[in-house]
Amino acid sequence: MNRATPEQKRTWTTGTAPGIFPLLGHGIALYRRPLAFLNSLPAHGDLVEIRLGPRRAWMVCHPELTHEVLMDPHTFDKGGPLYDRLGKLMGDGIVTCRRPTHRDKRRLLQPGFRSSHVAGYTDLVTEEAEAVCEGWQAGRAVPVTEAMMTLTTRVISRVLLSDSLDDTTTAEVRDCLSDVVRGLFVRTVVPVDVLFRLPTPANRRYRRALDRLHAVIDTAIAQRRRDADRDDVLGTLLAAGRGDAGAAAITDQEIHDHLITLLLTGAETTALCLAAAFSLLAGHPEAERRLHAELDTVLTDGRRPGPDDLPRLVYTRSVVSETLRHSSPGWLFTRVTTRETELAGRRLPEGATVLYSPYLLHHDPSSFPDPERFDPGRWAPGCPTAEQRRAMMPFAVGSRKCLGDEFAMVETTLALATIAGRRRLSHLPGYVARTPRPAITLGPRSLVMACEARPTRRTSPRTAGDHVVDNT
Hints:
This protein has 472 residues and is an alpha+beta fold. It has helices spanning 27-32, 34-40, 63-70, 81-90, 99-109, 115-120, 122-134, 144-161, 167-189, 201-226, 233-242, 252-282, 285-298, 314-326, 358-362, 386-391, 405-420, and strands at residues 14-16, 47-52, 55-60, 76-78, 141-143, 333-337, 341-343, 346-348, 353-356, 423-427, 448-453, 457-459, 468-470.
């Protein structure tokens, strides 16, 4: 006799978020107190109806439901207010394109972000990280967010365009990216176009930033066409534009769209993750001490990390993982249904907007006990549970998982190791942690910290590798 008990299907709950304003919907709550609003939603169900302006949308509040959405791109495709707005900036790039064209675009770009290529970027990342912090003077205040944006903009521009951007243009791109991500958010949560046609200072600033980003990309492409090819992403795209691989040639507009997509997604999120990591470490001395101990052991004589050091920077990578859990820069995303479907027992019409939030999932106490506590030890080898790994999705999951997820982890780990090995950053007197200003990304946008030099340390020949002595 078969005694196996059939698996019971989970019963999901659904509801509607209170506090709907005419025309604006929940846009005011999402703009003024986004994290508190998100945290309030699970009390109303596993799938909660909200309003984005006058538009109905549904927020997924449970990891399993989120996986159901992300693992079915045929039914839940890229789209919704977020990607509608991003499409006006990025065109039909890999982030915003619909499912039918996604596979070909990913195959074209994937080689530049494979593990073998990522290892080759090690020197590039550590060189730029060292350059950013070498001018920091002990006892002086450092604009950390601005410095991290400079670092990540330099890194991604070199990956994409080699050395096509000079320092002045890099700084301009950095500032334009900041203006764009702020402007995109309010256009997403309050998708009422007439408001953004008004000639307000914020609208003019947003349009100027968009125009300048497009002009920078066009100039880089034109310059490369006059020069010799290089082994970077632009070189790959130009070869595809000529049809060198035998496949149908891509258009000039596609080349442009891919570059601006990768530039936007490759700079802002990594910079905010690094800034958040330094801020969190400053507020958690034991985590900072463990990080410094690992760096002093692995990177003797104050040297820069290399590709062979990555497997040994275990705690450093755990700091990055916990920062992504605690303060994930990518915090709110949308999908759109391609047909009428059922989700959590609720019938959704074709064209319905479905949202999910890594922040909400990462702060669910049923997955991560004491979720507001910053604890890199959660990610020590053997520590995270299967449930926690499944709930952790800073780069999404499925076929639309971030193309550069491993590149971002390696870049952030190497940059953190390089800078923290040379400088210690602490909060200024009177610092009070504030809720981050909302944008398409989330993080400390104007963080300023105090800087002090760290002594160069060398492993003692008389002790085991875990013991270090001051060499200054």
